[in-house]
């Protein structure tokens, strides 16, 4: 036994210390939490492999984990930025622009050279990181900064039946949660808060806060000039509740910007854009006198009246680095012209479609200058580019101590998870007299979920008790992510199976052909009304046959069972039909739906205008034989079958009418500043 391992053995005991060293773990993310987490795992000996000491005869035999090569696999897509260095301590200035995962491996390996670290500079959504890949680990650690990736890893761990340690921080607060399929609630069992959205009329016509002007510059002006036009964007929706005359005017403004976009690359481009959005459009708003009866009307600006320098581009370039002071109106014009020139050069070089990125200096300069100019027009205080970056990028300050504490708590919870795994392995090796599996741990006590792991919180509001815990919640029986039963769909190589072959395989598992529906990514590709799809190959209906895709099977019988989710996986056989593994499926009955309520919760902003804070309703789409998609409103994906069964086939309703999307209630058009919920660690 190495000298550095003696403290670990004294603290954990030899059996658990050996399992820690023989473990194989996956760390997703190498940012603020990920760096601290990797350092802790390496210093604790995870994945280093157990080495027996010279006193082996005195050591008790220790059962091993599954036969896996010990090690730590680290995956991260990002590269190192200057702003990372104040809290991600595995990186130095010379590492800027290098892949985080690769540099983190090189630095962390110096702490403990015996640990086997496999670094991947890649996207966790890549097809190579499929269910089989996740199944090769004893524990998965999440150290991510966005909701989409967290939900993806959560689902992959559920499908692979691998414990997940989920963690995150928000300023001084943080939390750690252990998750395992069937034993605890998953990441999606409880709804997550979503990003606020603002009425389009507030953004485009009556801003009253700096964030309104920032969203206007980021989500309207920038995309119209350098990205996706409003007509093609999904961020803005116009409904019957909007003022028809105002909608027409807004569309006319977008069309005018399209024409100005054709001037890109000429000397008149900056002048034309400025006068259009800061003078002509503002004059149109001023002409609507009824809008300004109780408000101060905006004051338009003109390019020539503000121009105080012959070389605005050069002046703006010098000002753009002064990002922590508030620029004057004239200085904002210079930065506006400089950023516009830089973006035009990029567009002419082949970058035809650009999107806003808080770490892209050109796009940040443009949004900051445009937002401040608009703020001046409406009498709203201007902000420094540093402050605008935080609001436009939805940055919540990352605190290094919070990251360090959260990472250490994640490792503490992993000890309990490994101990519970080892207890089960040893208990399973000692069956009872009637060959049934024992229901207690090696200590004789009832086995708590994941070895007694807790939900752990960092609470900055309490100075007496910074760390608080609570028991892990039970799985939500109506959760659309963890309530289904997961299985694998083995697809022979070089084959393209049809819906009919999949339905035949499902019939062998007890499904009735006319009482099931099949969906992929919320698209219904087969049910009793889509018999035309039976002979169509799965690949034509949106199924990724290679790997990393999910097919949901819903039982529409009178006594429905829980949904079956199949993860696609290539098979070694060259020919044959798709097969479901395991061969025997145990699908419990689906719980009765909860009663619905018409009550809604809302919030009011400073202008007494509603702000949407309710998570968006999931929508399933039916894939017709011609490939078109028809929306079906649904409270959650698992309710699609119930909605389908509500159609009255005896009334002779035409199939095209039955498949049409129900008319949605009129709501005000909204533009969302950004996708996602609470941002946890800005990198």
TrEMBL record:
A single Gene Ontology CC term: cytoplasm
GO MF term (any one): SUMO activating enzyme activity
Biased composition range(s): Basic and acidic residues: 641-662
Annotated Zn(2+) binding sites: 186, 189, 479, 482
InterPro entries hit by this protein: ThiF/MoeB/HesA, ThiF_NAD_FAD-bd, Ub-E1_IAD_1, Ub_act_enz_dom_a_sf, Uba2, UBA_E1_SCCH, Ubiquitin-activating_enz, UBQ-activ_enz_E1_Cys_AS
Similarity-based family: Belongs to the ubiquitin-activating E1 family.
Subunit structure: Heterodimer.
The protein, known as: Ubiquitin-activating enzyme E1-like
Taxonomic path: Eukaryota, Fungi, Dikarya, Ascomycota, Pezizomycotina
